[in-house]
Amino acid sequence: MKNRLLKLSDAELLKLGSHGNEMALSILFDKYFFHIYSFANRLIKNSNIAKEIAMDVMLKMWQKRDLIRIDGDQSLRPYMVKAAKNAVINFHKSKKLITESISNPQLSSALAYDGTADAELNFKELENRISKIVADLPEQRRLVFCLSREDDMTYAEIAKKLNISVHTVRNQISASIAYVKGKLNDYRNQ
Questions:
Q1: Rounded distance, CA 88 to CA 90, Å?
Q2: DSSP letter assigned to residue 137
Q3: C-beta separation of 152 from 86 below 8 A
Q4: Residue 15 CB neighbour total at 10 angstroms
Q5: For residue range 34-50, what is the model confidence (pLDDT) as tens digits?
Q6: How far apart are CA 28 and CA 91, in angstroms?
Q7: How many Cβ atoms from other residues are within 10 Å of residue 126's Cβ?
Q8: SS3 (DSSP) at 127
Q9: What does the pLDDT look like over 117-133, one tens digit per residue?
Q10: Residue 168 in contact with residue 159, Cβ under 8 Å?
Q11: Cβ 93 vs Cβ 140: under 8 Å
């Protein structure tokens, strides 16, 4: 039975899973768990937390299996990657850290919130610095960046909302991240 299920598309496996076929969901778990774990671990650099995030994402996929809609031979991967990205962002927010995409890894680990007054002050100072750096971006670039980071919109959603190409959105985000990282490095070297 498992060999037959291995040949099915993600959409077919998800449909079987929504009808109670746990083996189909087990196949999806095996297919995506390591990918999600690796993604989270690259961003968080903590194996145990990355495993927890991967397990949470897989559990949410299981809980929402009836609501997830993919067609034909579409992959579940975009959904899983977006869920993993959101889980990492939520982890950073809950720990009062700056997301890896806009921070210097050394700064984020050095200034991670640890409950002390100094850490709180350092974090607030860094948070203010990043807000000022983002405010200095050109208006269009700042808008694209904020829609991506604060409103958690995809490149395609931003492109549609602003009536620009996805390529332009990608370039604006890349330029913004490079600018913020550069300014953070300047700040770190002061």
A1: 5
A2: S
A3: yes
A4: 18
A5: 888 888 888 888 888 88
A6: 24
A7: 20
A8: helix
A9: 555 555 567 677 778 88
A10: yes
A11: no
